[in-house]
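Q: How would the structure tokens look for this protein?
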Amino acid sequence: MVPKMRSVLLHAFFHLVVLLVTVTAARAVLTVQTTNLPGNWKYSRCLAEPGAVRVFPYQIILANNNTAQNCLSQCSAFGYPAAGMEFGDECWCGDVADITNNGGKTAPETECSMACSGDPLHLCGGTRRLQLYLWNGNLFTWNTPTNIGRYEYLVPGLIPPLLATVGINGKVSFLEKGGTSEFRNSTGAYELDLSLVDDFSHAWREMHVKTDVFCSGAVVLPDKAARILNVGGWSLNSTFGVRLYAPDGSPGVNGTNDWEEDPNTLQLQSGRWYPTALVMANGSVLVVGGEKGAGAPANPTLEVLPRIPGGSTQIFLDWLSRTDPNNLYPFLHVLPSGLIFVGYYNKARLLDPVTFATVKVLPNIPGSVTSFLAGRTYPMEGVSVLLPQRAPYTDPITILVCGGSNFGIALDNCVSIQPESANPTWVIERMPSKRVMPCMVALPDGTFMIVNGAHQGVAGFGLASDPNLSALLYDPSKPVNSRISILGSTNIARMYHSEATLLPDGRVLISGSDPQTPGLPEELRIEVYIPPYLNQGFTQPVVMIPNEDWSYGGQFQINVQLFQGQTSGMRVSLVAATSSTHGNTMGGRTIFPAFSCQGNVCTVTAPPNAKVSPPGWHQLFILDGPTPSHGVFIRIGGDPAQLGNWPALPGFHPPGV
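A: Here is the predicted structure in token form.
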């Protein structure tokens, strides 16, 4: 047979096969899929849509692969217990309550008559008719405890701050966009004495910065003064800014130190607006990302402070370049292996701490039920924390990310991963409401409070609306999908440029909001949240620490006084000093070390190394049952990079190591 004839016959045979398959499918009796369903899904009924308003809020178009398996798996993965297929190629997800609330009505089964786009043998609804499936049981539990704590008004403020940092002097340092402040007489920096909040005229101390800290990053250094380091800023020489403040004074007594800065002698290697900073295991400071200024190009590089003499030591990061502009304020964490976790946009990877080469690319961070393109870092702006580490530090560490946005549609989930496990996989947990621009605060008992943010939008001026006024508590000691408790609500919107930080007395300080959204003011008022553990009327235990400078693996005595329980039921926690801005608590870490007690004298074993606990300052708390003491600042690991001797320049006063 000649090649041309063979080709004609094969072509004709192919069309015959296609015709036979089509005829067979047409003659097949389409049925509802009721078996081999994923998870605990059960078929319910054919449901009529009420009209233009749809029953369920989340639509996924699966033009070629809509099946009961695909649709139901996607809905349940993101925590939605009701789902339906419609028009053959549409998948809809929501809650059972949506059916009644949005006017869904039972329809004759014959009206659900369209084949699934990915399964010609089964039905996927009809014209405005949903093939309705319901989850049998509970996909999640949102706890509603009787003791939810409460918001309280604390003190009038002076500015809408951008950064909030608790100093080792027990006071709170605030920075705002000085050169671009709406308040013409603002000096850009103020310190709040918590012991004087009932005396407004003395509660605030005026401080000063020389360049604009607008959207900068900050960490607490491991030097002996626990200086606050602030880097980057808004424009021109501000973006190169390196600013240092050594907290001094004491409750009720003003300090005299101020921010130290000289743009002519100490700068970053390149301008950075929206950078993240991290104290690494070797004690030096990693600064990653940002933009080169307002309206300027991205800066997909990293650098290390103090700068090594010589030429540029910046490293270009192609993976950061590829995700511009959705990767600002990337999430940075030191892992127990020493590797550095980086979360940026909807991606994550692990870096070598010496070369900064990529060691492992992690799976993409899940987004929303309707889009894998949703993001977690600015401007999508969620928040990331390390879940607590506990002696003997053999369990894999977990990273938690909550909130974010799908380019304007806020996310309603948290996701977590154990990045150093053999097969790291993201776990999705649904939150009770959508939240972009959240703040998350580590509490002394190992839980995390989630506050602030909006139900809609992205971070930036005038880009979000509908403030989220409720507080949540995330408890990692509970099973997945039952970790979130719904706490109290406020009437003060806290959106773009809001902060939350743990105070030494166990309360959570909540500040800021500068949304520039009509109807939402620049927020000067300062609140605190009284967590449930302080809302039971129990006397807080007392801890005294003779030695505040701890070496790795060393054993150190503390003296305790309990009022409810015995030391056999006591816990000790270490909460790392952090700086809060744009939902990013830079330097965050919670550790539960080993300890033993004889009477009221307890011996605490410090974390074993700088990978488990990078050098730095922590608040040490004891917990008498649920009730924490006031935190006492201690330093763990010293100052191996000798930051306390830096910078040796006129106008700066290094405190020593």
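The CA atoms of residues 502 and 508 lie 5 Å apart.

Confidence is low (pLDDT under 50) at residues 1-27.

Upvote if useful.
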